[in-house]
Amino acid sequence: MKKSLMAMAFGTFGLGIAEFAMMGILGSIAQDLQISITQAGHLISAYALGVCVGSPALLLVRKFPLKRILLLLSVVILAGNLCAAAAPNFTMLLIARFLSGFPHGAYFGVASIIAQRLAPEGKATQAVSIMMAGMTVATVFGVPLGTALSNAISWRLTFVLVSCWSIISLYGIWRWVPRMDALPDTGFKGQFRFMKSPAPWLIVFGTLIGGGGVYCWYSYINPLLTNVSGFSVSSLSWLMVLAGLGMVAGNLIGGRLADKYPAGLVAAVVQSCMVVTLLSIFFFASVPWLSVLLMMIGTAGLFGVGSPLQYLIIRFSKGGEMLGAASIQIAFNVGNALAAWCGGLALQAGWNDRYPALVGVPLAFIGCMLLFTLHYKYERQLSKQTE
Questions:
Q1: Per-residue pLDDT tens digits for 221-256
Q2: How far apart are CA 271 and CA 306, in angstroms?
Q3: Contact at 8 Å (CB) between 216 and 356?
Q4: pTM above 0.85, yes or no
C-alpha cells in the first residue's frame, strides 16, 4: 500500500508545482513573451478552467479500470507540461496551461478512490491524506525550486521539471499501483443521481465557501507580511516555506484525526478554527512572530479539511464516485478564484492589507456552518445505517 500511495503522491507533487509555481514565474513569462502581468495572470485562470472542464470528462472513461484511468491522466499531465515548456507564444502557452489543468481534478478523484480501496480498515482517510501530501510537499520544495530555475535560467525549466517528475510518477503508478476493476457502471444519468441529496452539495459548498474564506487572506499574504508585519521582501521565500510546512502538517493531521473521529466533524471544527484564525490575523498581523504563527495555522487549516472532505464525498456519491471525488478540486479552484476577487475588492476600496482576512471571516463562518450541518444531519445518519 505504501508504495502505491507514494506513487500517486508523486503525481500530486507534480500537480502542486504546476498549479502553484505559476505565481512565482509570472514576471519571467511576461518579460520573455512581451506581455503584461495582467495577461500573464490569465495562465492561472486557464489552468483553473482546465480543472473545471476536465473533471466531468471522467464520465467518458468511467468504464475503464481505475489504474488505466490514472495512467491516462498521468500521460495528459506529462503532455500538457511538455507543451507548456515548448510553447512558442502566449496563445500556445495558454492552451498548454488549459491542457495541464484538465487532468488535475480527475487525478485527485480517481487517486482518492484507489487510496481508500488500498487502505486497511480504519485508515482510509489517512491513505487519502498521504496521496494528497504530494501537493503540500510541493509548496515546500517543488515550488521554490521551480521559481529558482525560472529566475536563474528560464521559466521553461519549471515545466520541464514537472514533465520529468511526471515520468517518474507514471512509472511508479505502472509499477506499484495494483490493477483494480472499474467501478460499477450506473449509466450516464446514474453518475449524477447522488446530486439529488443535499449532503454532497454541503461538502462542495463547504469546500468552496469555507476554503474561499481562507484564500481571501492567503491570496494577498505577501503584501500583508511586508507592509503590515514588517518583513523584508527577501525574507518572503523562507516564509513561504513555513507556510508550506503548515500545509503539510495540516493535511496529515487532518487525515489522522478523521480516522479517529467523524470526518465531517473534524472538517467542521477545523473550519471553525479558521474563523478565529482570520480574525486574529486581522487584529495581530502587525506582530511579526504572531503573524508567522497564525500564517502556519491558517495554511494548516486550509489543507486540514482536504482529506476528510475528499473521503466524505466518496461516501455520499454512490454510483458517481469519480465525479463526486473530482468535484472537490473544482470547488477548491473556483473558491480560490472567487476569494482572490473578494479580497481584492477590499484593497481596491482603499483599505489596508489586513482587510482581505476580515473579508474572509464571514465566508469561513458560512463554510463552518455548512459542514456542521453535514455532520449532524447526514453524516451521523449515514454512520447509523452502516453500523
A1: 888 888 899 988 778 778 888 988 999 999 999 999
A2: 11
A3: yes
A4: yes
CA distance 341 to 336: 9
Place of cell 507543451: 83
Q: Which of 288, 296, 315 is nearest to 217 (CA)?
A: 296
DSSP code of 197?
Answer: S
Under 8 Å between Cβ of 41 and 167: no
The pLDDT tens digits for 264-315 are: 999 999 999 999 999 999 999 999 999 999 999 999 999 999 889 999 998 8
Inter-helix orientation angle 306-315/198-205, to 10°: 160
Phi-psi map region of 198: left, alpha, beta (phi>0 left; psi -120 to 50 alpha): alpha
Cell of 316: 455520499
How far is the first Cα of the chain from the last one, in angstroms, to the nearest whole number? 26
Provide the total of helices (H) and of strands (E) in the chain, helices listed first.
20, 0
As a whole number of angstroms, the distance between CA 250 and CA 371 comes to 18
Indicate the burial class of 336 (C-beta count within 10 angstroms; 0-12, 13-18, 19 or more).
Answer: buried
CA 118/CA 110 separation, integer angstroms: 13
> What one-character-per-residue DSSP string does 331-371 give?
HHHHHHHHHHHHHHHHHHTT--TTHHHHHHHHHHHHHHHHH
Residues 17 and 134 sit within 8 Å (Cβ to Cβ): no
How far apart, in Å, are the Cα atoms of 110 and each of 23, 199, 221, 265, 267? 27, 20, 32, 24, 21
